Protein 1
Amino acid sequence: MPRAGDRTGGAAPFEGLPSIRRARTAEAALLSRFMAHAFLDAFGHGSRQEDVLAHVRHHFSAARQSRELTDPACVTLVIGPPGDYAGYAQLVFGQPAPEALQAQAPVEMRRFYLRRDLHGRGWAASLMEAAKATARERGADALWLSVWQQAPRAIRFYRKHGFETIGTAVFHVGTDPQKDWLMACRLPAGG
Ligand SMILES: CC(C)(COP(=O)(O)OP(=O)(O)OC[C@H]1O[C@@H](n2cnc3c(N)ncnc32)[C@H](O)[C@@H]1OP(=O)(O)O)[C@@H](O)C(=O)NCCC(=O)NCCS
């Protein structure tokens, strides 16, 4: 099974990153592969294999990415050229937010990944800033997300970037109910 760090094309390693941009519809197949690999690498060990594979098939097919990339409510930001991604973030507008979040215009950060071999370089921070800027541009005043309670690195990262825990949620990997934290941060205008 390929891992998130496998190269799917392209040449240069990521010396000068980041250049962060919105993914194009034509990238659906490449992006779905990267998303699947990133999920397997980060969370593949957390549930039974059949549950993990069911989750990947459901959420990361090329057809699903085509739909998400053409959905005006969904914004997918990527770092890196097609097929040589370093990471991605996905925002979904217009979703019901957790009740504990008191906000006029909350937006969900549904997915946020950086390749494992690129962790710790500050590039995830750049991706987060770009995601926050995109959310603000579309009028959002808060960002919320759900993160696995057994993902301490991600939780620490989100805390560093202004997120606080506002509750718990159940996240299904296939048939496996996993315990998540709900986290949120304010997006002050101009901030
Ligand atoms: C979440 C993610 C994007 C953050 O990117 P990153 O480059 O790793 O982030 P940073 O290195 O800036 O921050 C990670 C922090 O966690 C800390 N950390 C690392 N391992 C840790 C652990 N086991 N427990 C607690 N903190 C830990 C790091 O020291 C760093 O904190 P510091 O800057 O105060 O030293 C990246 O780790 C990732 O893609 N993870 C896998 C996918 C994932 O979990 N996505 C979130 C899904 S909701």
Protein 2
Amino acid sequence: MDKLIYAESELYSEHTYDCLHQIESVRMHGGFDAQGTYIPPRSKGRRAAIEAWTKALKSRGGDLFDANASLLSGARMPNHRQAVFLIAQGVDQPFWNSLTITGKIEGRGRVLAEMAFPDLQEIIEEDISEMALGHLNNGLLAIHGIDEGGEPDKGIGGHDVMWFVARDIVFGDQAHPDVEPPEAIARPEAGRRLMPEIEPQYEGMLSFLMNLLMIEFRAEIGFEATQKTFRDQALFLDRREVAETAAALIGRIRLDEEIHVESLRLYLGEFRELTVQTIDGGSLPGSELIDRFWQGLVIWATQEQPLIAAENQYKSLKSMILEHEQGEKILQQFDQLAG
Ligand SMILES: [Fe+2]
Ligand SMILES: [Fe+2]
């Protein structure tokens, strides 16, 4: 039988790297094996644990929570052709901004390493000590946060720094004025209780995990698009080598994110199979709470939110394009590339 209980230090454990992950003088997390293959940080014990918990979940008749490609739909501004067109025209600030903003949003993920989360065992009938759910506060969420925001005190960059490095090796230092992420678009139902059967702090935790899965899963759309832009042979003609390095950096982030998505699918998959104790002394299947919340979240995150985000994005792109001396003409061509 596989080991199902892990000490925090085991979950944090790293592979032995043949070579550290460093570009110019910036040290970043993870490393490389002797063949030069990138290995995500803290993926030794964590990977083994995820596999063992997943196997155990499947043997109980459960499975990873379903999150498939249908979640990748929705409006997107700019599309790939538009993004490439703008850079080719010398309007590279929108792309630069997207790298900066993505890096900053990743950095905010470090909050996972600093927040205190309630213990779900308090509302679950079964013993969760041999599940991933029983390890959330024992390393799993903190490690996730460190992957996103790095270990600044040790001088090791996480995803935030990886985006900034990808940006700066291609564009140079401070190519454009610094920019902050736009305010998050609030969901109309925000604050409304959707799981009144349990205390708000547990609903908050479950809603947080589902929102995080949605964000992590959908982030892949933008990450893949960015990588494709860096790899476009018609762009960055005088800097192809660094553009390829930037694309490789994004590829490493995508690999790290796979562990995040899989972990979140595991936590929610486990929760669906469990029995939740309700405030009124009764109980209900975890699947009922998860599926109820997830249905609404999917509509919001794949349809409603992307439309609003695309509209906002268009407005901001338009004003940047119009700053160019050929702005009107570029905007016209840009619009023709829509759809
Ligand atoms: Fe990340
Ligand atoms: Fe992530």
